Amino acid sequence: MNPLDYDLEGSGRSNHLRQQTSNNDSSTAHEWSFLLNETSKNRTLAEEQKKLSALTPEDTMELARSGLKAIGTDVGQNDNDPMGNGDQSIIAYTCLLNAASIFNLFRTSGFKERTISAFPFACIVGSVKCAEQSLQAVYNEVDQPYSRQDLLNKLLEAREMPLRLSPLLMVVLVSTDKDASPSLSKVAKLLLRAGASPDCKDALGKTALHYCVYGTNPGCIALANMCIAASKTSDLYGNDVVLEGLQKSVDMNGMKGIVGGYDYDRDRRSVFIPELEKEVWVKADNIRLPDGKVQKEKPMLVDVPDRMKRTPVNEAYLWNRPNLVRFLMHEHHASIDIKDTTGISPKDMSAMHLPFYDQVQPIVAAAARAEAKAARDAKKSAASVCGSCNKSLGSGGKKCSRCKATFYCSRNCQVQHWKQGHKQECDEILAEAAGVQLSSAYVEHTIALSTTFLLSDQFGTHYQKPDGVKVREKFVVSAQAFSSATPVFIRDQSGSCQFQYKTTGPGYSEIWEKVEEESAFGGLKTYMKASFDEAGECTMYPSTACIKNKYQW
Hints:
Layout lengths: L15 H6 L3 H16 L4 H8 L4 H14 L4 H5 L16 H11 L11 H7 L3 H14 L8 H8 L9 H9 L8 H11 L13 H4 L7 H13 L8 E4 L12 E8 L4 E6 L4 E5 L4 E2 L23 H7 L3 H10 L14 H5 L10 H23 L14 E2 L7 E2 L2 H23 L2 E2 L5 E2 L30 E6 L7 E5 L5 E4 L6 H10 L7 E8 L5 E9 L7
Antiparallel strand pairs: 1-2, 1-5, 2-3, 3-4, 6-7, 8-14, 9-12, 10-11, 10-13, 11-12, 13-14
Helix pairs in contact: 2-4, 4-6, 7-8, 7-10, 8-11, 10-11, 11-13, 14-15
């Protein structure tokens, strides 16, 4: 459906919704919950949106507002930040379903000339001329530097519609439609050149890159590229800077200026120089902050999560969009290790082999394998150098007789490293090798299939040494966990020893750390040794953790 055809006119429910939800948080949550159930029970998304279209624009805004309140949003903070991102607090796990419903219902609400301002409407219909005229009208009223003029920033950043979209976010959203205007890329360039923020977020924390996931038009990839490029220097917007390293305009080196918009085609930022009363366009390498000021580090736009901690690649995975996963990972090096509020990352999902994600799973799984190989190579490389002087050892070297984990090129280096801190490191390695003792008090007595990857035919809890294994004899077990918030499932090959261990139990964190580190299984499973003592308590040995083919099982 073309968002521009989305009709919000109609009689429908009247102002009683606003009256019921005005200042009462509990009634707001109740109203939203009631309407959510009414609209979602046995209905498709199209039917839900059709029901929503019966509301007046004002009631639609109030319904969205009550929904945002119900998931813990501080709408007052949003009201006090009309040109900013507003409340971006993390949405609780228990509210994820409601958050998804809010997004699906409201992301296209308001695309009508009478429900959004003239400037963003000109932008979403691809009218470059009208957008240029609106910007020029502002330029005629204010002086340089434009990046410090509230009138311009209000035009570029004012948030509208139920999900609080800026004009640039609206353009990206509309670009996902297969019938979107081909002029939208020109409009996006115009907005960025004027100074629009490529990092802006909607009321659910979604960026322009998240929005690219929700359509089939390849043209939205071009807009994503623009936002990614502009984001690299967006934090300089409006700041005082000093020009340096200019080759042709050498006389400008050392001059001070104020940073403005971004020209995507030339990969340059504008800088207004008060001394010359002139605007110049320069590369990022020719801009630095004044002495004494340090530019803050920020994550790449491709790794910025929404309020559910979902990054764009996480979202693309959930929507099974292989082209976007490749675009984000291969072209822009998006991380596959960032976990959402459920504690699951794209790498974790790739290890599950779920049929819903058949197109994206092989892409992410291949990247996970490459990461695992790189980690193994780095570990081998670290073991082949002296622990003190980093000299390459080749096949030689002396091993620490206590921990047997650190190598040296000579006794002198070994003695020096001991004094520099290896004694403490050695003690820690030995302590880890001694294992961690579990407690039967923290064993779950019901196997929860929803939180494990149980493959055994023998269901039930068996907190005991396996058949045929002696007391204190070590044996191999698999350790599996869905996330750090779920129990770890321990099982030997025979299944005569299998149990779930609670997250609050002693030793859990040490086991989970090794599970998460094992890249071969996407941070969901590893193998290690265990034993049971005379009292029937289990000891796990995280220091022995490795992949299955290292053990005879």
